[in-house]
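Entry type: protein chain
Record version: 2
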Amino acid sequence: MSDQERYKRFWEIVAVRLLHPTQLVVVEALSRIDRPLSPSLLERMSGGTISLGHFDYHCKRLSTLGLLEVVGRKQRRGAWEKFYDLPELDG
């Protein structure tokens, strides 16, 4: 499967499962930046227009749906910052 076909197939799967605009922002950012991101980084990228709590909730939700996976953790100020990335999607 070519990269273009994989991209098209990914969006076909995502479109059916996404129910909230913030989830679309998360997936779009990850697909364009092509590196793991945390809810904190996503909040900064949004210029604060979407809250950290909002990104955190939707990243967890997307992970539950199998559209994101936790690929790293970093301890920050007594809490763990989770980094998410898009999973490899097979047919």
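Comment: The domain at 3-85 is CATH 1.10.10.10 (Arc Repressor Mutant, subunit A).
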